[in-house]
Amino acid sequence: MSGLAVQIGILAGLQSEARCLSGLVPPHRIALSGARLDGARRAARRLVEGGATHLLSFGLAGGLDPALAPGTLLLPAQLLTPAGGAVPVDPDWHAAALALLRAHRPIQAPVAGSDIAIGTVAAKAALFATSGGVAVDMESHVLAAAAPALPLLIVRVVADSAADALPPAALVGIKPDGATDLAAVLASVLRRPAQIPALMRLGRAATKATETLRAAARLGAASGFGLV
Question: What is the per-residue DSSP string for the chain?
C-alpha cells in the first residue's frame, strides 16, 4: 500500500502515553479514552470517522502474568475480548513491527481487554486464569470493535505487575481528557495516607514503562511501526 494512502489512527488512554508520540505523529491522529469505556468508544469512533485506514492501540497495560515485570514491551498477536472472543491483529503489520522492535524483545502472547479497571491482585489473578491474557488494557478491544475490517496493531508496555494492586488514588486520578487529576489524587492520599508507599511504587513502575513506550515510539512512529 502506498504510504500516501495510509492513515494510522492511534488510541491511547492517557496524555502521558500520547506525549510519547509528541513530534512523531500528527496530533489529530491520536485520540484519548481517559481510561473510561465511554471515552474509548467516542475516541475510537472519532478515529474511524476521521479516515483512519489502520488502527493502533498504544500505551500502558496492567500485568496479569506474574512473570512480566514493569517495562516489558507487549506486541500481542491476538486480543482477547471481555466477551470471551479472540481477535487477531493484522499479521503483516505485526510481523513488520516485530522486526522493527526486536531489540526490546517484545512479548507476543495475547492481551485481554476489559471494560473496567482491574486494580486488585485477586482480580488480576482471576482474569489471568480465565482469559489467558498476559496483560490487560481498556482500549484495544474497543478500538477493534469500532472497525473490525481495518488492520489492527497493539503496542503496549506493562506498567503495574501482577503483584501490584492499584492504590485508590491511581483509580481516581485520571480526568476524562486523560490528564492527571492532581486534586483527586491529593484528596485520596489525605483520606488514606497509608497508600503512599504503593503509589510511589506505581509511579516508579510507570516511569520505567513510559521510558520503554517512548523508545518504541521513536523506533516505530516514523515508519508506522513498519507499515510504511
Answer: --GGG--EEEEES-HHHHGGGTTTS-GGGEEE-TT-HHHHHHHHHHHHHTT-SEEEEEEEEEE-STTPPTT-EE--SEEE-TTS-EEEPPHHHHHHHHHHTGGG--B-S-EEE-SS---SHHHHHHHHHHH--SEEESSHHHHHHH-TTS-EEEEEEEEE-TT-PPPHHHHH-B-TTS-B-HHHHHHHHHH-GGGHHHHHHHHHHHHHHHHHHHHHHHHHGGGTTTT-
What per-residue string of b and e applies to 26-52 under the rule 16 or more CB within 10 Å gives b? Answer: eeebbbbbbbbbebbbbbbeebbeeeb
Q: Give pLDDT, residue 2.
A: 43
Q: What is the mean pLDDT of each run of 10 residues along the chain (228 residues)?
A: 74 97 94 96 97 97 98 98 96 96 96 96 98 97 97 98 95 93 96 96 96 96 86
Q: Measure the CA–CA gap between 68 and 190, rounded to whole angstroms.
A: 32
